């Protein structure tokens, strides 16, 4: 199991900074990857694309992505975009 912690705002500029680390997580996509979002305050469409790319890699390699500790605001974004059905969400 591999855990990545996301903090603050995952907007477009932050997504560009985080993208290399998210891509490196794809090397572990055959395992369970936990995205700890307890301290994540905001996610933009750019951030959602990073999550989706990681999920796609995990599906292709037989792994799993768990999104843990999302706030109510981010949960609403996941509901509106259909992401709630794509990821295993843990409180």
Give keywords.
91 residues, alpha/beta, Transcription Regulator spoIIAA, 4-stranded parallel beta sheet, 3 helices, 4 strands
Verbal overview:
- The protein is an alpha/beta fold and 91 residues long.
- It has a single domain (2-90), classed as STAS domain (Transcription Regulator spoIIAA), CATH 3.30.750.24.
- Helices cover 45% and strands 32% of the residues.
- It has helices spanning 12-25, 45-61, 72-81; strands spanning 2-10, 32-43, 64-68, 88-90.
- Strands 1-2-3-4 form a 4-stranded parallel sheet.
- Strand 2 (32-43), helix 2 (45-61) and strand 3 (64-68) form a beta-alpha-beta unit.
- The longest helix is centred in the middle third of the chain and has 17 residues, at 45-61.
- The chain is globular.
- The two termini are 17 Å apart.
